[in-house]
Design goal:
The chain has two helices and six strands. By secondary structure, the protein is an alpha+beta fold.
Length: 102
């Protein structure tokens, strides 16, 4: 009986643990933006974002609900050199989240 209660308790703990939503993201910490430009293939849908000195290219979807706030942070990084932690969606290279560096 105790074994079943323990198994049930462990199941409840693991099934109730919330997901942070960032499990599908790769994080670039203390990253600064080196360039922002229109994507030549789909300028109506995406901006092309280059991160770092040896630029790695990622994309910002213009259709994202948080597009304006993400673009504002990217421009702060580009113009003022402000570093951010940038979350890139795995397998798509699309920027999904930008957090201030703590």
């Amino acid at each position: 009986m105790k074994t079943w209660i323990l198994i049930l308790f462990l199941f409840m703990i693991t099934s109730c643990s919330g997901s942070s939503g960032s499990q599908n993201l790769t994080w670039y910490k203390n990253a600064t933006i080196s360039q922002i430009s229109e994507d030549p293939d789909k300028p109506e849908d995406f901006l092309r974002i280059s991160i770092g000195i040896s630029p790695q290219v990622f994309y910002l979807s213009k259709k994202e609900s948080t597009y304006k706030s993400l673009l504002d942070k990217l421009n702060q990084s580009l113009k003022k050199g402000k570093p951010f932690s940038i979350g890139i969606e795995n397998k798509t290279n699309i920027i999904k989240q930008i957090n201030d560096v703590k």
